[in-house]
UniProtKB/TrEMBL annotation:
Active site: 8 (nucleophile), 10 (proton donor/acceptor)
Keywords: Carbohydrate metabolism, Cytoplasm, Isomerase, Magnesium, Metal-binding, Phosphoprotein
Top-level division of the source organism's lineage: Bacteria
Root EC class: isomerase
One of the Pfam families matching this protein, by short name: Hydrolase
Record gene name: pgmB
Site (Important for catalytic activity and assists the phosphoryl transfer reaction to Asp8 by balancing charge and orienting the reacting groups): 115, 146
Source organism of the structure: Enterococcus plantarum
Classification via CDD domains: HAD_BPGM
Note accompanying the cofactor annotation: Binds 2 magnesium ions per subunit.
EC number: 5.4.2.6
Residues in the signal sequence: none
The protein's name: Beta-phosphoglucomutase
Stated family: Belongs to the HAD-like hydrolase superfamily. CbbY/CbbZ/Gph/YieH family.
């Protein structure tokens, strides 16, 4: 039997991935760099500064800015992103998420968040689901981002289970790779992308039952 769940946030719990895309696209445009949805797939699950570095490299501007300038650019993106979240509330939970979390709670299955986003606690609070999670991994404590397994291993440890007993949920390819490298069972959630390496892929969490998943 599996013993716990580890969730990505953006694109799994709520559709904030679209707001990250808008904010990155606008910042890139100001720098004369055009990004599209295909390129955006490679940003999913990637930390704020690493995302900026990837965008600059994509536009051949990786050597054009000082560290301070890059920090200011990342902050600017975050300010726009946070503005886009102003109306975020329970209605923005993705389909099936609330029901799944309730089912997990009824069975006393611990849940943790493994997101690269520094905004995770604020977002979970706005969504009204903060209390369902035993722990939110602080991305500042990580040596390496996804696809490294570190964030998933830390998430399992934080809810006192072994990685092999955990199930991870992800919408991004880098995340699926991290979950598998941690030795967990990987559930991919995407309507549009083929998430290579996932043990199971669904279009939304409405397709999942806690009881059935625990015995995979
Ligand atoms: C960071 C990036 C986002 C996204 C998330 C992970 O979030 O900026 O584009 O890749 O990590 O889902 P944040 O800026 O909220 O720390
Ligand atoms: Mg995600």
């Amino acid at each position: 039997m599996k013993k716990g769940f580890v969730f990505d946030l953006d694109g799994v719990i709520t559709d904030t991935a679209k707001f990250h895309y808008i904010a990155w696209k606008n910042l890139a445009a100001e720098l004369g760099i055009t990004i599209n949805e295909t390129f955006n797939e490679t940003l999913k699950g990637i930390s704020r500064m690493d995302s900026l570095e990837k965008i600059l490299a994509y536009g051949h501007k990786e050597n054009d800015f000082t560290t301070e300038e890059k920090e200011a650019l990342a902050q600017k993106k975050n300010e726009e992103y946070v503005k886009l979240l102003a109306d975020l509330s329970e209605k923005d939970l993705l389909p099936g998420v609330h029901n799944f979390l309730v089912q997990a709670k009824e069975r006393s299955i611990p849940c943790a968040i493994a997101s690269a986003s520094k905004n995770a606690p604020m977002i979970l609070e706005k969504l009204g689901v903060l209390d369902f999670f035993g722990h939110i991994v602080d991305p500042e404590t990580l040596k390496k981002g996804k696809p490294d397994p570190e964030i998933f291993v830390k998430a399992a440890e934080s809810i006192k289970i072994e990685s092999k007993d955990a199930i991870g949920f992800e919408d991004a390819q880098a995340g699926i790779e991290g979950i598998k490298a941690a030795g967990m069972y990987a559930v991919g959630i995407s309507e549009t992308e083929n998430l290579a390496g996932a043990d199971l892929q669904v279009a939304s969490m409405t397709e999942l039952s806690v009881e059935k998943l625990l015995t995979v």
